[in-house]
Amino acid sequence: MPQNIPEFKFSDEALKLRQCVYEHWCTHGHAPNLRAAHEATGLSREQILEAYKQLDLGIMCIVDQDTQNFNLLKAPPFSSYPSQAQVFVDGKLHCYAGCAMESLAMCMMPPFQGKELRIEGYCACCLAPVTVVTKDGETLSYKPPSTRIHVSLSPRDWNKTNIVSMCDAMNFVVDGDHAAAYEKKIVRRGVLFTLEQARKFITGTGKARMWQYERIPDYMRPQRIIDGIRALGVDVSGWGE
Ligand SMILES: [Zn+2]
After folding, report:
1. pTM across the whole model
2. Which one, 58, 142, 170, 189, has least CB within 10 Å?
3. What is the distance in A from the centroid of ligand 1 to the CA of 32?
4. Which domain holds residue 21?
5. Is residue 4 part of a domain?
6. How far is CA 137 from CA 45, 158, 203, in A?
7. Distance CA 82, CA 218 (A)
8. In angstroms, what is the span from residue 175 Cα to ligand 1's centroid?
9. Which CA distances in Å does 71 have to 51, 66, 109, 114, 209?
10. What would the pLDDT profile of 17-63 be if each residue is shown by its tens digit?
């Protein structure tokens, strides 16, 4: 259960691989496979797999460790498979964001500086369109103006095995009524972030990611996360807090 794991340091190979994954995804809109990672880093298959194990433990990515090719599912802010948030750069579909929340952070990465990233998403309950325009860490506009991000999994349940279910639980909704309707559909409650609260929530990570080559692992400390979210003014009672 990768919550509350002790602190550790990424190896040089893990740092090199993480940088490669970010650069490849920013350039191509998808993750590198093992050969592309090998060509970019000079690391052997064995070194790449060991590095991915570390990066997964440090919540930098999720690889399917049951697969021989270590299928790379996500490396926040990116997702290998279609998510709720499509990201357009220069008017073209570039990639899928890890989730609605992470989509707001992508514009903070160095290769996207000065570029407008448009997020095309949808309401989780009725699939009505949601559009958010971001640039240089700022959320420039969004419609409809009542858009919120609904988070239907408590931080106490984030990353118990990996972050797939956590990301899956962070969804755009067009307003509070649609959030309530979605809660009935999934038979689960959640909490609502305004887009301003969401941007503040992801900014610390967003502004460190790829800017700091030696950035340390992330650690899942549920109580600290809940306290931080409450401090943003989010009503966390939907999580039973
Ligand atoms: Zn809806």
Report:
1. 0.95
2. 189
3. 35
4. 9-75
5. no
6. 35, 25, 7
7. 24
8. 8
9. 13, 9, 23, 32, 22
10. 999 999 999 999 999 999 999 999 999 999 999 999 999 999 999 99
Q: What separation in Å is there between the alpha carbon of 126 and the centre of ligand 1?
A: 4
CA of 149 to the centre of ligand 1 (A): 12
38 and 151: one domain? no
**If you measure from the C-alpha of residue 218 to the centroid of ligand 1, how many angstroms do you get, rounded to a whole number?**
33
Span from the CA of 135 to the centroid of ligand 1 (angstroms) = 26
Region of 121 (left: φ > 0; alpha: ψ -120 to 50; beta: rest) is beta
Q: What is the pLDDT of residues 228-240, one digit of tens each?
A: 999 999 999 999 9
Phi and psi dihedrals of 173, rounded to 5? -135, 150
Is 3 among the domain residues?
A: no
Q: Give yes or no: residues 54 and 14 share one domain.
A: yes
Q: Compute the distance from residue 177 Cα to the ligand 1 centre, in Å.
A: 8
Instruction: Using a CB cutoff of 5 Å, list residues around ligand 1, an ion.
Output: 123, 125-126, 178
Domain count within the chain: 2
* H-helix segments, the chain: 12-28, 34-41, 45-57, 100-103, 164-168, 176-186, 195-208, 222-231
Residue 64 to residue 62: CA distance in whole angstroms: 7
- Cβ atoms of 5 and 57 within 8 Å: the answer is yes
